[in-house]
User: Fold this.
Amino acid sequence: MTEVPVRYRSADEDSARWAGFPFRESDIVISTRSKSGTTWLQMICALLIFQTPDLPAPLTELSPWLDWLITPRDEVHALLGAQQHRRFIKTHTPLDGIPLDPRATYIVVARHPLDMAVSLYHHSANIDRDRLRQLTGHPGSLATASPRPALREWVLQWIGATVSPRDQLDSLPGVMLHLSDAWARRAQRNVVLVHYDDLSADLADEMRRLAGLLGITVPAPAWPALVAAATFDRMRARADDLVPAPPGILVDNAAFFRRGTSGSGRELLTGAERARYHARAAQMAPPGLLSWLHRGSG
Assistant:
């Protein structure tokens, strides 16, 4: 059994659920930070594996989130154990918190952190927190939460927050920890880095690149339909089948696919505020990663 070197825990996730997981040849693990393209990569993998836009089941059944406490661990392991297709598993855990099995391919998706933060802000408002606490077994208080700051103020607080990255993975330090760990492993043959902006710029090319890296052959006539099914508008139209949550957790399924473009975080801030962000990021990640991640953005 492969030991998990780091345990990541939150109110609704626990990376220890990976311990003892029986990997198979050609398994795919999709490791991302929240709102960085997780569902997009799951959909792309589904389309490449099944080679049809008509998926045989909802995406959460085809590609379960192993760490999430919503479903008991044994049920998730049993679901994955019964699958006959090539498995592709979701996690928000950095690679140093899950078993690294040589038979599996690990895909880490990166998004400009400011865009991720804006998306996270809107996503948080779309979650029924009481329902989430009930499903994870942490009912907690049903009192009304205090109002959040406006978006711009919240993002500035997010940039400046001094927190433990391992305790708050969706913070800026947490994002940089996740990506720095993956960046350091990028030369390993079974670790693949994907940039959200590459998916946005040329979805067809990125899907073909991923198919090659995963050893998947797609007949030429099938490509147009598969690429079309992975576009943002098509996915939003199928939100009820694609959102990564049981009924009742999201207030509006379609709102999960809110915008799907890049630049919103940078547009929100002044030049001085963006410079403050870049100065903080430079303290947390190596220059090569930052150059790749930011793509020359100001």
User: Anything to note?
Assistant: Residues 38-50 form the longest helix (13 residues). The longest strand covers residues 105-110. The chain has one domain: 15-294. The domain at 15-294 is CATH 3.40.50.300 (Rossmann fold).
